[in-house]
Amino acid sequence: MNSLPIKELIARHRPGHALEQDFYRRADVFEKEVDSIFLKSWILAGHQSQVPEAGDFFVFEIAGESIIIVRSDAGRINALLNVCRHRGSRVCLEEQGHTARFVCPYHAWNYDLNGELQAAPQVMDTLDRDQYPLRRARLENFLGLLFINFDPDAEFAPIASDFGGVLAPYDLPHTKLAHQESYRIRSNWKLAVENYCECYHCVPAHREFAVGHGRARPEGNVAELRQEVLSRAQSCGLSAKMTQKGWKNAEAVGMDRYVDRYPLLKGHVSGSRDGKPVAPLLGTVSGFDGGATEFQLGPISYGLVYCDYVVLYRFTPVQADETTCEVFWLVRETAVEGEDYDLQELIWMWDVTTRADKRIIEDNRRGVNSRFFVPGPFTPMEYYTQAFTEWYLDVLQT
Amino acid sequence: MNSLPIKELIARHRPGHALEQDFYRRADVFEKEVDSIFLKSWILAGHQSQVPEAGDFFVFEIAGESIIIVRSDAGRINALLNVCRHRGSRVCLEEQGHTARFVCPYHAWNYDLNGELQAAPQVMDTLDRDQYPLRRARLENFLGLLFINFDPDAEFAPIASDFGGVLAPYDLPHTKLAHQESYRIRSNWKLAVENYCECYHCVPAHREFAVGHGRARPEGNVAELRQEVLSRAQSCGLSAKMTQKGWKNAEAVGMDRYVDRYPLLKGHVSGSRDGKPVAPLLGTVSGFDGGATEFQLGPISYGLVYCDYVVLYRFTPVQADETTCEVFWLVRETAVEGEDYDLQELIWMWDVTTRADKRIIEDNRRGVNSRFFVPGPFTPMEYYTQAFTEWYLDVLQT
Amino acid sequence: MNSLPIKELIARHRPGHALEQDFYRRADVFEKEVDSIFLKSWILAGHQSQVPEAGDFFVFEIAGESIIIVRSDAGRINALLNVCRHRGSRVCLEEQGHTARFVCPYHAWNYDLNGELQAAPQVMDTLDRDQYPLRRARLENFLGLLFINFDPDAEFAPIASDFGGVLAPYDLPHTKLAHQESYRIRSNWKLAVENYCECYHCVPAHREFAVGHGRARPEGNVAELRQEVLSRAQSCGLSAKMTQKGWKNAEAVGMDRYVDRYPLLKGHVSGSRDGKPVAPLLGTVSGFDGGATEFQLGPISYGLVYCDYVVLYRFTPVQADETTCEVFWLVRETAVEGEDYDLQELIWMWDVTTRADKRIIEDNRRGVNSRFFVPGPFTPMEYYTQAFTEWYLDVLQT
Predict the structure, then answer these.
(1) Kind and range of the H or E element at A343?
(2) Which of B3, B21, B193, B201 to mutate to test the interface with C (most CBs of C within 10 A)?
(3) Which of A361, A364, C59, C294 is most open to solvent, judged by the fewest CB atoms within 10 Å of its CB?
């Protein structure tokens, strides 16, 4: 196809403007992204309440990789690559379950919950079993949120330090997964992240969200409201501390993060159909202050914490032209479905909003694929999306 | 894959024979065709009766591009690229409809019916709106037939000059679209054009057509009949003028055209199940002379005009291995369906024939994809298909 | 993608270990395999009982090629390429049937059952018909089994010589096709052949097979049993002769073969649900000796002969990531379904086993595609799979 070399694509980028088409389509660009970004980044895998007991496991996939998240006998949660060390079969075929061992369905090589090879038929005496554990990714259980990183040297401590205090009042270790939903998006992952990172589209495209969330308004319009919320926050036991270490502000690729508290609008106190609470207050939060805490942790994982529930997002690259948006809803661990919360009401806001985003992103993809697409200028409300693209081009260059 | 360079493929072509497999499969060949042919050619978009009122629009797609055909407030018909000048979303999601504005569903950038940017939220004061109109293709409304060209410098006048007189008696501006049908063909577009450009296959493959159309016979066999029809034509108010400026005879790529009147057979006076009329006479045509006028306008657009109806064809490249055959049936504007014509009878001939061609072309593709395919010799009745392939190789070389 | 050149891939192969991921995925590797292996190898096409009469034909496909197997008027069975010599259409659209001629559905070029061009409309007088026969593959009817080879110089005599005596008692020319089944496997063909060539997986994955077949046990464990069977074989009229000319032991690419007789277990005398006979004894076999004869003929065709039925396998490459496993069941020609054998019982063993293999192979593919896949060591029971991979790398290098 005589594709332009990636370096030249980067060199001709027009500052302040969206990315060119090639970045969203080319398989070689995608493979470079896997190497430069996804194999080094913190990625949300799920929540500890998905694996309460030793032997509980679930599997998730990203960019063709399958990772088993399993709680070992010692209670530690492991992230094991789902690839037999013999001839490479998947060793775990179920999406979730409970097991004492992973026995490869091909030749019965047998791994314990830490991925150590325990048995291999016919070659028990001759094989050096220590040489063949399942390969693993790092896993951090941060307040019950499970983050993995394929890079063994990746740092997590600075993230924990920035986030620990802010998130403490919600007592996330004592939340549980109330619902999880997978939205398949036919587009490159960057169109999804670019969409998530700006709220310029919220008024035109997310009526349900825009009516109650200050994020949908230009900062100047809600500055006063923000101050009010932040001053109320403390009385509800919430922190007003912000962090802004996303994209080029992060210490290293894959440690991107921010945390921000913004105001809800017109009597809304949660992200719900009518703005009213949909679940019991989280942790030690003592009341609804009218705000919401938004955070990023790594390039494709995001969260939004209301006083009564948490929604987590992961924009999972599948291949150059396909992404899965995985959404997790968390509520207080002791909350009982049907009594303390109605599941349909709990998920309403972010289900309707994510469905709309799926459509928007796919329509964006269609136009970006045109030979006549000329990337246009970012506007002020898209500053964080613009910051993403600038960071992205830097990372891709290295 | 170590594909042969296109130049070498061309160099080893055997004159008088069909094209080699690579021309029908390779994505790089297809991209070169888009650049060298489709971005410079006149292409049938549709008929003015599809957009009678200001604000009426329809969208059509070719080679991944989406073009909005819309009538402006001033009555002019525009061809606008369906790509927002901001971040590239489709601005129009409906296939057809009526609107006062195109409002991008992503961030609500707002374009008028001429594609001028009218509004963009939050940046009305800072954005130079004149810089961001929807991009456009040229559009010629020729006797009500809408032709577009992505090349702003393409000429149309010589075509109009050749065709105007011949087509005048049919009064095409006063016809209307009675039916439109889309036939998806899994093959390269050239196998479809090659099929359309010869009638050597008509006797074996199109019994319904061959029984009534002189085109299905070798020229020598119907020469006398042709003379009879041409002499009768004048008395019916029809022109006997021919044009032959297809392929290498055209002034430039994309201006290919011919017009020819040939005889119908054995009492047939129209293209119908029994050869009898299926609709009221067109324009000023005063009777059925027993002939049909065939024309080409650009490389992928063709027409066949009977005394009572018109059928238009567009072989729309989708990707290297996929084509859509779009067929339009036109009748006199004042004709009333159910009274003046029966729709099923009107479309019968070209529906059954196009379905057969779809099958034929797809079976052709399967064999052409064989490693054992050796392009065979063209026969006399395939002269125009041969002329197409010779022109094609010339164009591809430049 | 900056793929590693094939030579470098081969050079970095680690002896004694499985192949790397690239060999199973890359389209350029697959095309090289077609050239170096499939266009030179003996390939099972089917059985003569599929074309009992002159004019009977069936079509089979491999790597995008379509081959017509047809019995001519003289009784000879031909393998004709299903590609018209004119413009390349398929000439035969049915999967099987009976015909006097192959008339191309496009322009009615007309071929006899030997592929000779008999007629071509309009050009009968000018075309040199001798120049345009359907192209053909070689076909060997070996004991009723039909093998093709695209290479006109391929030798078959040494294979016939090795196999003739061993297979004689089964009188394969007087068997018939009782059933044929096609299993689509989403994986490269090598993962299927690697699976077939080892029985290390039989105990874990094929309970139904392992309970009755000595092949599922390490050789040492069944050596005594094997001797018993071989000594009993003669009294049943069977040969104990072995051949081992597979992979690097073959005289040339595509002549790979072995024949081996191994013991059945615990009172099993056939490959059936309960180990009991499922069809009348074949040929001159006078009793059930408790063994089964396994053979290979070419790289992708295999057979297993019980005393009462034959099962044949072909692992048909479709494209780099897709394979069809075709299975044929043969019984004595005179056996009557419903009386002499129950079809469901006849096919039970190899249907259940092939379905399991399809799943295993597809799970293997998923893991092999991981960036974290490191090819592991072959074990003793995988010696023949290892021999395959070593041969494969040699062939690919040339």
Answers:
(1) helix A343-368
(2) B201
(3) C294
